[in-house]
């Protein structure tokens, strides 16, 4: 019997559709295996959502909602998401800017005139870009918003001239929230609920949850010690997976603010620096990527959106293991049909206390010893392990040790522009301008798109 062309075409389309379905089912199975294995090893406790081509293909709640491990997580649980919650004040500022109620060049003193004279130097854009020069919140002593405002009133001078440097801290966030309240006459909580959560379709998100609220995951450390839910300063939105996905889509589809406003808060002051939306990229009026991570106590969250591909990966945990980026990279590899790395323990998170007592050379020896004996348990697969360690040392003002670690990393990964950029930054902070210039030039040679290196090379060449 002779088959018609139309019938043959239908058969081919059916076969192709079947192949795609099988491929998608395989990807889902691999993602589930990855997450379940991480949970069995004690490396992930939390909730996961993966969307591909604009459709949710995987959603799971793995582990427990509390330190006593009596309540199982479900996808209805809300999690604190650390710094990602700062997106709500950044978007709020841009909503008011588009309504003509503020200008990004306005000084903080225009809205909060009670603050000392330094408020007349800081623009709202400085708050959004963390370039205000403000010192951080005094986390060890501050108990509430009033106490933090009192601390700000006591500041005599800024750490640096606004706009000249970058320093990521929460007083920038605190003042954004206070400006929103001053302009609108609403509490920050009410403003976010009315102008962001509801329009974005976030039906179960809650701001500043406490012990009386149900279905809020409680964070805890590896010793089973629980953390509190209430933070010293207010304004922190806790979300479910569905809330988080709705928020990611609201940003990607410009439901709340325009592409022009979005560009203002998705780009940092320089590459690699945080902005109101964390980080990402745009091409014209389209978002290409939106990436933001957040950590608070033992909560940790990560959002990665690759908008043109319709890919969104959301991870939230209430038992921080410092590995969400590793998990996310493996999920991306699975979606792309590529080999992926199983989840391993974080070298820095596991041994930071021990590293505090070691010199840079001792850290390198310890790293190699562990790599030889436990490469199946700890992550040594890429440059990030030592890069994170180097930045940890820099945060402790241990610049010479950071240089040693970064320098060794360039020997392990000589084709990575990023590791030479990190080494250049360490030398720059150390005041060694010739070696900073040398390494920034090497970084730019390996990564011609490194705009940060270009700017610093121009500065150092002068």
Automatic annotation (TrEMBL):
TPR repeats lie at residues 417-450. Residues 1-23 form the signal peptide. Coiled coil: none annotated. Pfam families: Beta-lactamase (PF00144). The keyword Endoplasmic reticulum does not apply. SMART domains: TPR. Residues 37-322 form the Beta-lactamase-related domain. Keywords: Signal, TPR repeat. InterPro entries: AmpC-like, Beta-lactam-related, Beta-lactam/transpept-like, TPR-like_helical_dom_sf, TPR_rpt. The keyword Cell inner membrane does not apply. This is Beta-lactamase. It comes from Mucilaginibacter gossypiicola.
